[in-house]
Design a protein that fits this description.
Blueprint (H helix, E strand, L loop, with lengths): L7 H4 L1 H10 L3 H8 L3 H11 L13 H42 L2
Helix pairs in contact: 2-4, 3-4
Length: 104
């Protein structure tokens, strides 16, 4: 029977790829796993040949926060327009009541 122990590089391969797809940089992965940046880069290049840089196509944390702020602003504007619609509807109902009871 042959005793086969995977190297540290092979043991972290799936973890590195999963975290890479979530947006982590090569430097971060190298620090966490204890591998060199060259080894981490090789693992990423073998499985993602189109991605050659660490975070070229990844969203930065700043852009994610900016998108959340913009989404919150759009929600705020939506609420303002909704409240304006309710107010106009309320005024129309008062106008109809006025016409019904006062102008007979």
């Amino acid at each position: 029977m042959i005793n086969y122990e995977p190297s540290k590089k092979e043991g972290f391969k799936d973890v590195i790829l999963n975290v890479w797809k979530k947006g982590a940089t090569i430097e971060f992965l190298a620090d966490i796993t204890g591998l060199s940046t060259k080894e981490v880069e090789d693992i990423v290049k073998q499985n993602n040949p189109t991605d050659t840089t660490s975070s070229k196509n990844k969203k930065s944390k700043i852009s994610i926060v900016t998108n959340l702020i913009l989404a919150q602003d759009h929600l705020y504007l939506y609420n303002i327009f909704y409240l304006a619609f309710l107010f106009i509807s309320f005024l129309q109902s008062i106008g109809l009541l006025f016409l019904k009871y006062c102008v007979q």
